[in-house]
Amino acid sequence: MLADCFVVSLIIVACYLTRVARCTESRPDEEREMIEDCISQLQAYLYNR
């Protein structure tokens, strides 16, 4: 259960970082795609449990 809370907190942080990346024009598109890919991997981890 503690691991689930940790993963959920990671998703929340990743979503926040993605929002910051979308709002900040100076961030490169590659970094934005990397963050979004990280979010999708975390969500897949939760769904596959």
Sum up the structure in keywords:
elongated; 2 helices; 84% helix; 0% strand; 49 residues; mainly alpha
* Distance between the first and last residues' Cα: 12 Å
Global outline: elongated
Number of helices: 2
Structural class: mainly alpha
Order of helices and strands: HH
Detail the poorly predicted runs: none
**Largest sheet, strands/sense/barrel:** none
The tally of structural domains comes to: 1
Secondary structure: helix percent: over 70%
Care to count the β-strands?
Answer: 0
Strand content bin? under 5%
Write down the overall mean pLDDT.
Answer: 74
Radius of gyration: 12 Å
Walk me through what this model shows.
The protein is mostly helical and 49 residues long. The protein has one domain (2-47). Helices cover 84% and strands 0% of the residues. The chain contains two helices and no strands. It is elongated, with a radius of gyration of 12 Å. The mean pLDDT is 74. Residues 1-23 form the signal peptide. Keywords: Signal.
Structural topology:
Elements: H1 2-23, H2 29-47
Helix pairs in contact: 1-2
Quick description:
With 49 residues, the protein is mostly helical.
